Amino acid sequence: MRNVILLLLSWMIALFLASCGEESSESDKSSEEARIVPVEVMVMQPENLMEYIDAVGTAEALYDANVSAETAGRVLKIAADVGSKVRTGDTVIVLDGETQRLQLESSRAQLEIAEASNMKSEKDFARVEDLYTSDNISESEFEQARLMARTAKGKYDLALASFGLAQKAYDDTRISAPFDGEITATYVDPGEMVAPGQVVFTIVRTDTIEVNVEVSARDALSLKAGMKANVRSRLIPDNVVTGIVHSVSTKANEATKQFPVKILVPNNERAFLPGVLADVSIVTGSISDAIVVPFDAVLSRNEKKVAFIVENGVAGMRDVSVGSQRFNNVILLSGVIPGDTLVVVGQHSLRDGQKVVITR
Prior knowledge:
The structure is a single chain. This protein is about 30% helix and about 40% strand. The chain has 4 helices and 20 strands. It has helices spanning about 1-35, 100-135, 140-170, 215-220, and strands at about 35-45, 45-70, 75-80, 85, 90-95, 175, 180-185, 195, 200-215, 230-235, 240-250, 260-265, 275-295, 300, 305-310, 315-320, 320-325, 330-335, 340-345, 355-360. It has a 6-stranded mixed β-sheet with strand order 14-15-16-20-1-19, with no helix packed on it. Strands 2-9-12-11-10-13 form a 6-stranded antiparallel beta barrel. Strands 6-5-3-8 form a 4-stranded antiparallel β-sheet, with no helix packed on it. Helix 2 runs antiparallel to helix 3.
């Protein structure tokens, strides 16, 4: 009997506790529904936007060449030192060309002799040819005359080529700039002997600079040569220069899996120096009537993108789809329309149907 009484008491206590729990749960739920969350909002207004591809690149000289000597000689003069601006063909280094000058004079004399011999041979052959045509000489005599004429012509051609080589060797004693640019280094001193193939100076062209960036495959498909790019040097952040997309590679960098893009930028103010970082924005198109919201206004709930819209003091959760992101904003493609009141602060504390008070 005692056991039965204890069992009845246990059962009554359990019912009492369960009843208390249900009342507590319903009370908590009622309290949650009654809670008013303060939020900040913004009214959606359509905007006309330009689409950009942003990247960070490195400035490089458009042309950068190490120039070598093509003939041997002793350095007589450095005609353009480091920092000098030169034009194509300007002499930068002068070598002692006396040996080359003498070889040139010798080749010229040999050429003159060969030329005279060739002219005489041509005239002689012309007379022999007339005699042969009129049957006044034999065929063997004719062939002998033709062989002599061809030999004279060959000697003349050989002498002409030798003279050309001698002329080039003499011209090469004046080592010149291959393009317009600035001398950035010289590697020889007056009196020093140089050999063919030895690097003697470096020249770069910086009036136009090349900025190299890398973009994703998706962005690479949006780019083409001729597009305008806004480029800002890290040396002068306030100076934005308009450049032109020169080329877009169709092959990704194996290390980064990104696609190289070259942009040509005028550098008249010397804002860009080789090796300096540059910020690049390339205009790829425009969007009309875009809905742009702060990135934090979009939440992830149950693997969906959502945002909260306030109507009559109640926050309603809407599924949204997002487009491209720019800085701290994102474009909403659907789910929100112009005139909607979007929660931009306090959204993390909201649930669908939550009462709110707008503080700003």
